[in-house]
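Hi, here's the filled form for the chain we discussed.

Project: internal
Contact: R.S.
Residues: 269
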Amino acid sequence: RQNMFSTYQTRLQQEVRPETAKTVFVNPDIKPTVIREILYPPPAPQQIAMLLESALMYQNTSRYASSIQSYKDAWAAWKDLGQPLRLEVDLFFMCSLAAVQESAGADDLAMNGYLEARRCADKLPYNHPDKAFPYCGLGSVFYHLGDCQTALRCYLKAKEIREFTLGGSAVDTATVYHNLAVCMHGLDRIREACAFYQLSKEIFEIELGRQHPRFLTASRNIHSVKRRALQLQPEFKPLWKLQVKDKFPVVKAKKKGKKGKKGGKKGKK
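And the returned structure, exactly as it came back:
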């Protein structure tokens, strides 16, 4: 009975959502999403680490006001220790606060936060990989606002920084490749989008495995962009025609004839 129940359960799952529907039958009209950057907190004292953990928990449960307050409390408590903070720490708090504002839907506040973080990131050394975080955040905000062209420029700048500091085969660089493809997908640059999707997918498969959410997201987007490139309207011949009498015909006005000259036509001499 147990084996029979498992067999019927598996068959029901395949009928409701078959494996092919997860990859092949992808709706090309669904807008693809960018992959958000993951911000790892720097090593912190225990009290501050607890506040950071609370802020992350509040953000994951959509309690954004509490998350922002926890981040601000942690930042202020770290400054009160009397030691000057490193630029990486300030950049982490700026990007984290902007990310919470973005999750809350306050795109204007998130954009201001990422711009402030970019000014902080400009003070870092030229070969520091964290310089790309503000550009990735700005690209995500502009994409959610529907400005794919500006988002593409932000991700191109992040791509330049990641390739210079981390190399082209890193997972963070592959994330930027994927987000570049999403922006090109939105601009109908199908061939370029397919190339960047495929590149990010291969890196995710090698570094993270085939069951990782980033690999699955890239695979789904590849099928979506390919189906969008093949969206054609079929031409068909109608089987019959039905003639309908117009209930409100347009009555044309009669043209007035030209009046001839008085005296009639002249005869030939």
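Let me know if anything looks off before we file it.
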